[in-house]
Write a structure and sequence with these properties.
The protein is an alpha/beta fold. The chain has helices at about 15-20, 35-45, 65-70, 80-90, 130-140, 150-155, 165-175, 215-225, 230-235, 240-255, 265-275, 290-300; strands at about 30, 50-55, 75-80, 100-105, 120, 145-150, 175-185, 190, 195-205. Helix 4 (about 80-90) links the parallel strand 3 and strand 4 (about 100-105).
């Protein structure tokens, strides 16, 4: 008798398979399907039974139902109505239904985030950076457990001198403590992404660093434009000089200060950097304290970046 081929077992969520849901690449939908990975993330989140948890991109709810077992409340933010319907089905008629609040739409377009103690998210790769800073500027939460593309996660934790150290690294570390807590292979997702993933733990600094973030962002934007060049070289660009001179003249006008007739912004910047012994510094090796000193020196001289 001919052999009967055994059916291949699928690890896709049964309800999703029945509905024939096609995952939307525009939304970066890669559903985490491995229950062991989900359990590990939940354990590392240290959810308390009094916590309100914000989950970004719950998808079909594989992780959501596990969070609901431990948390007081889950606020799930989902952009895809099909996934919302699936999530509602999974909790309908169960004790978990009353603990779940679903926000439909793009979390980045919400003017304000709701109150939450903890954020857990399998983050769509295309919103990685804006979501990080939306969370950090919100500040009012204990910590966030976030899954990103592995290289993005490595950029977040990179230190001065590392190959991946960049503006994202220092801007994130200014506002939070960040660590990679686990790596996740591409085969743990449906459909598998093209890259490996990693989970990070993000804790807002408390108390926060006292700095004008707009000024800080302006300085690091210039310094990291070409991170291997010296600061002296970076501040010689015509566009940079023009912008800083405009800001200086505005500062003088607001504070009723006279601008010297022979004022030259290029000479002024060179003087500040040389006095600070920062002219030879390069962004790729500068830490937070280095940038703080440079920013303070510029601002004290009336030169601003916003």
């Amino acid at each position: 008798m001919p052999k009967v081929k055994s059916e291949k077992k699928s690890r896709v969520h049964n309800e999703v398979a029945k509905q024939g849901i096609v995952f939307n690449k525009d939304f970066g939908q890669h559903i985490l399907k491995n229950p062991l990975v989900i359990t590990s993330i939940i354990e590392k989140s240290s959810i308390r039974n009094t916590d309100t948890v914000l989950e970004v991109g719950p998808g079909t709810g594989n992780m959501t139902v596990k969070i609901l077992e431990k948390a007081k409340k889950v606020i799930a933010c989902e952009i895809d109505p099909r996934m919302v319907a699936e999530l509602q089905k999974r909790v309908q008629g169960t004790p978990m239904q009353a603990k779940l609040q679903i926000l439909i739409g793009d979390i980045l377009k919400n003017p304000e985030l709701p109150f939450f103690d903890l954020c857990i998210a399998n983050v769509p790769y295309q919103i990685s950076s804006p979501l990080i800073f939306k969370l950090l500027l919100h500040r009012q939460f204990r910590c966030a457990i976030l899954m990103f593309q592995k290289e993005f996660a490595q950029r977040l934790v990179a230190k001065p001198g590392d190959k991946l150290y960049c503006r994202l690294s220092i801007n994130t570390q200014l506002l939070a403590r960040v660590d990679i807590i686990m790596k996740v292979g591409k085969n743990n997702f449906k459909p598998p992404p093209k890259v490996e993933s990693a989970v990070i733990r993000l804790e807002p600094r408390n108390p926060p660093v006292q700095v004008n973030y707009t000024e800080w962002d302006g300085l690091t934007r210039i310094a990291f434009l070409r991170k291997n060049k010296t600061l002296a070289a970076e501040f010689k660009h015509t566009s940079v000089l023009t912008s800083l001179e405009q800001n200086y003249r505005l500062h003088c006008s607001i504070n009723n200060l006279d601008v010297p007739k022979d004022f030259d912004i290029k000479s002024k910047i060179e003087e500040i950097l040389t006095t600070l012994e920062a002219d030879k510094l390069r962004a790729r090796t500068m830490d937070i304290d280095d940038f703080m000193k440079v920013l303070h020196a510029f601002n004290s001289a009336g030169i601003h970046f916003s």
